[in-house]
Each structure stands twice: as C-alpha cells, then as structure tokens.
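Tokens in:
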C-alpha cells in the first residue's frame, strides 16, 4: 500500500529510481511494456548480447524510437531516455543505475551478475529464478553483507506466493501449504524437446511460427520449473518440500483446503508447512474442475471453534472439519507485474521475497538410463529433470544441482529416476557458479 504515492513523489522531486535491465526475453519485454507508464521509475539502460532483439522489444511495446536512442547511460540518465548496450558489466558498474533486473535465465551468468552488483552496490531483482534455486541463499547473504537488496521478482509465482505466506502469517494464520498450479502427469518427467508440444497443448507448427523455445517450454512440463520455483519459495519462507519430491496432487481451487492438509486430518501432506504444486489434470488425463494451472494459493488453519464460526458467518469456504481454508489467485501476469519489485526497493528498500536459508534444493535426476560419456543438457533437455528435495538430503548424497547440469559430461552411468551425483560427472570447477555453490554447501552443511 502507498507505493504508488511514493513513486509519484519521486517523480515530483525529479529523483526517479534508475533501472538497468539485463536480457530482453518474454518476462523482460512484458516489463518494458509497462515501465514507461510508471512514475518515479526510469529505465536508463538495457543490456542484451543482441541489440536488435532489445530494439524489437521496444518496438513491439510501442515505445517512441526517440526514447531509446541514447548513446550512453549518462545521456539516458540526463535526458530521460534509454540506452541499449551489449555489455552487462558496464550497465552494472554505471553510476547512473540504482537497481538491476537480472532476466537472463542462465545460472552461470546470473551468479556473475549478482557478484558484480555486490561489488558495485546495486540492488538486484532476480527474474532469474534458476540462479536463485541454485545458490540464492548464499547470494542473498553476500548481498546483505554488501548493503544491497536481493529480491525475487514479483509477477513470477515464487514472489507472489511469498507475499501470500507473509500476509497469512502477519494476520495470525498458521500456514499449512502454499504453492502454485501446473499441468502435470507422472510421465511428463520423461518429456523432451521433441515430445513437448503435444502434451503442452500447442501445435508444433504454431510453436515454430511463434519462435517458442521447446527446451524452455519443456522445463515447465517435465516438472523442472515447478521444482525450481518451490525451492525458491521454501528457501524464502521456511516451508518444506516433500522428501520424495513434489507430489503434484490433482486439485482444483475449491478443493485446496480438503486436499492440502496433513494426512492425520484426511489430506495428503506429511506435515504442516509445505510448498507444493497442484496439477490441472487428474491422473487419467481428465481436466480438473476449476484448475489452478496458472495460479497460486495458500492454505491456512484455524485453531478454535470460534475461528470456524467466523469462516461460516462470513461465507469463507472451509473443509469438512471447519479448520482449513484457502486463498488463491487464478493467474499471474509475469513481467507485467514486475514493477511491484522495483517500487518496493525504490520506496521501501525491501525485497518482494528473499531466501534466508538453504532448506531445499533442485537435484538433477535422470530421465532415462544415462551412459558414460553422455553430455547432460540441463533444464528442459533430453537427459535430466529437476526434483525438489530437502537440502540436507541433497547434501547427504552429494547430488548435483540441476542448475549446474548444462553441458557437463558423465563419467559414470546413472539409472533412470536416480539423482546425478558429483562423483558421476566431470565439471569445470573454475566457474563462479560452481564456486559459490560449493561455498554455500560448506556454509550450510552443519546448519541443516
């Protein structure tokens, strides 16, 4: 509340928050479509390795060409325009930038950018949830030590789930479960970029025409993206993930308080306080009634008959016991809502969700029997999918995080459905992503 008024004040004072955006994919382009209409915010610079791609993002979102013609960041800052450049390090290092939005989706690059933000004292918003799931707790720790804000990206489901959890706890509810919806069947864990379109519900020719990346879309279908997002939620809220991986129970909006409650009360959860994803499909493939495929939810529990009476008196649907209720949102608007994170930092110096401990991890899991010499192709590929597990279990078996499984070679075979472990792979230990990951494992190993 009141962020818009504070943004208007920044605009009136002529002191807008100066933003730098790295990457111009779908999420970032959706933000570009909105930011020129928000007072108190100035998109000073955009960095993309392909400048024409960035220019196309501005064209498609109806920006005036003159507004993206600045030759330097200094010129853009002074004239209220935007500069397009290729060097992300130049953007982060600039004295004309206050807040960086990291929207590359690449864990290796994401780690590098956060470390640079720590060095140059720039707040950072991580659209790149892949990086957060890999090493978010350690990056957030480094950011805090550097005196900058590290934030999850509002509009993406993890930050919005964190908001719902925070609301519930702030008004006194016990959070039983929180998460999102997706389209899921068990066989989707074996989905590949060659099979994705039929199950996703898009004609291959339409996908090609639309320039859709089959690997990216497959990460949503094979369970990887769900694991990444629930790990981000877990590490930011203190909620747990199921030791055997996400359960993906079929569940519509009306059944949330009936299904997502502990086993002892007739639900499916092993305990109170879980991050979980619900499926929009029944196990036989039938659609779930009032599904939450693109939505988010929180289930909470009351502690007295008086609470149950209140639910009934005010028309709040509860489970049969009268103890459990749910709030949900049936959709999220991706980058169109990212301005909330920017405004939260600009006006409050606060993140919209931030990891505070290493509780859960995304473990690379074989989609099929993998042989010595094969190269793992990472998120959404042909070889592995991401499985959410407790961090202590991941460390106990020496599992390789999904975020480091791109273009690394197997030196031992791995059976289908089994985790890939450090002893199974040959990996470049010189990368910043690997080094920060190992630093995080060492730091938390005795704290879990």
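Residues out:
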């Amino acid at each position: 509340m009141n962020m818009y008024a504070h943004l208007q004040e920044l605009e009136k004072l002529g002191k807008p928050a100066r933003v730098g955006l790295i990457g111009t994919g779908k999420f970032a382009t959706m933000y570009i479509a909105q930011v020129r209409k928000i007072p108190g915010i100035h998109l000073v610079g955009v960095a993309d390795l392909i400048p024409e791609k960035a220019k196309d993002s501005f064209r498609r979102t109806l920006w005036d060409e003159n507004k993206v013609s600045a030759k330097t960041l200094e010129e853009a800052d002074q004239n209220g325009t935007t500069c397009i450049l290729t060097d992300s390090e130049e953007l982060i290092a600039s004295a004309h930038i206050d807040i960086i939005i990291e929207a590359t989706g690449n864990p290796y690059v994401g780690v590098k950018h956060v470390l640079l933000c720590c060095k140059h004292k720039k707040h950072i918003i991580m659209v790149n949830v892949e990086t957060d799931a890999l090493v978010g707790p350690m990056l957030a720790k480094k950011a805090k030590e550097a005196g900058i804000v590290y934030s999850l990206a509002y509009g993406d489901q993890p930050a919005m789930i964190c908001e719902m959890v925070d609301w519930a706890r702030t008004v006194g509810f016990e959070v039983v479960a929180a998460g999102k919806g997706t389209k899921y069947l068990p066989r989707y864990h074996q989905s590949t970029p060659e099979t994705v379109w039929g199950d996703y519900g898009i004609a291959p020719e339409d996908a090609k025409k639309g320039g859709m990346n089959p690997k990216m879309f497959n990460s949503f279908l094979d369970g990887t993206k769900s694991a990444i997002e629930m790990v981000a939620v877990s590490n930011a809220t203190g909620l747990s993930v199921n030791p055997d991986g996400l359960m993906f129970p079929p569940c519509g909006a009306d059944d949330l308080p009936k299904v997502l409650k502990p086993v002892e009360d007739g639900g499916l959860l092993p305990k109170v306080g879980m991050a979980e994803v619900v499926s929009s499909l029944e196990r036989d493939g039938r659609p779930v009634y009032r599904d939450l495929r693109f939505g988010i939810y929180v289930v909470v529990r009351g502690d007295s008959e008086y609470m149950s009476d209140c639910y009934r008196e005010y028309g709040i649907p509860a489970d049969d016991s009268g103890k459990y209720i749910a709030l949900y949102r049936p959709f999220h608007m991706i980058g169109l809502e990212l301005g909330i994170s920017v405004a939260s930092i600009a006006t409050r110096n606060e993140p919209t969700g931030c990891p505070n401990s290493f509780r859960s991890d995304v473990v690379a899991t074989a989609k099929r029997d993998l042989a010595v010499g094969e190269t793992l192709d990472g998120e959404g590929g042909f070889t592995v999918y991401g499985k959410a597990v407790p961090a202590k279990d991941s460390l106990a078996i020496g599992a390789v995080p999904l975020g480091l499984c791109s273009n690394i070679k197997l030196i031992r075979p791995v059976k289908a459905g089994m985790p890939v472990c450090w002893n199974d792979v040959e990996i470049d230990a010189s990368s910043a992503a690997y080094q920060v990951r190992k630093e995080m494992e060492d730091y938390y190993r005795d704290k879990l």
